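To close the section, here is one more complete example, presented without commentary so you can practise reading it yourself. The ligand is magnesium ion.
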Amino acid sequence: MNRRNFLKTSALGLAFASTPLASFSAPGEPTRAKRGDGRLHLTFEPYELRLKHSFNLARSQRTTTPGVQVRIDYDGLRGYGEASMPPYLGENVESVCSYLSRLDLSQFTDPFRIKDIHEYMDSVAPDDRAAKASVDIALHDLTGKIMGQPWYKIWGLNPDKAPNTSYTISYDADPAEMKAKIDETAPFKIVKVKMGVGHDKETVEALRRHSDVPICVDANQGWTDKHAALDMCHWLSERGCQFVEQPMPKEMIEETAWLRERSPLPLIADEFLQRLPDVARAAAAYDGINIKLMKSTGLHEAHQMAVLARALGMKVMLGCMTETSCAVTAAAQLSPMVDWADLDGNLLIANDIFDGIKVVDGKVTIPADRPGIGVEPIA
Ligand code: MG
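Output:
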């Protein structure tokens, strides 16, 4: 009997045993490492991410991001996952923990049934995308570890094709603070500028005083006049900008399509889209999509979104939230498929608890020899 069949047979014998549901455990508290009962064991705990700099977006400012760390134990192996919940996406620690506590993954005896588990998760609740992503990431980590391979290899991707990753700066009225932010961009070959906060040109001009690095722009839905948006696209094009992300509010589809017809820069959908069915909709108004695991419910659907966008002739960008290296490194496994990566979320936080993705010479560098999503917890 091979190992897999042995596991299945063992699991059948235990199919009616009482099984624990997901539970909290305090940070640092040893978690139950279930060994050999052939079931998936989910545990999770809140973990607040502290930002190195306050984050100024078009519609908010913050210094922390709520997160939830997730583990799935199976047959002595552990998969790590994470939910990160920027406030504008509507999830929070309470909603994620509430959702995860409703899941009974112990009914599953095969961690490779990722599609079945996603269907089960969608049946429990339709939304809760970050919560689902945390489970999906942990499943990919676990199954990769069982196979002994990182996911970029399982998908057949060449890590040398991973793109440069952008590093995000936001405007600061204090010139010294702004200069400090610009200095931090030095290792990167593309810098992402957050716009729509009322200092759009000042941010670019401040950057241009110190650096000629190519930029990309994220307007975060901040431009509401299509003519002004077009003027800004031309202005940015003359200043080394490569593309504009979510220029207008996601509801302004016709205006965005109008802008796309005239803009010298590609327009990339971010807030406009979440999951796989949104990709075809985005093609009507945008040149490309920004895939993020916390929107797509994790790697399973993110991979499908990248394939579909390519088939539709669209550009693909891979983004992240402010996250530990856990979720960012998981996303990086997909990076050889994409045109642009914006995988700096782990670099923006002061209290990372995982070692994973590195930025080497501005480029996304996936840990080569680590199976699963490629992370190790920092002791
Ligand atoms: Mg964005």
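Once you have examined the tokens, check your reading against these statements. The chain is about 35% helix and 20% strand. The longest helix spans residues 129-147.
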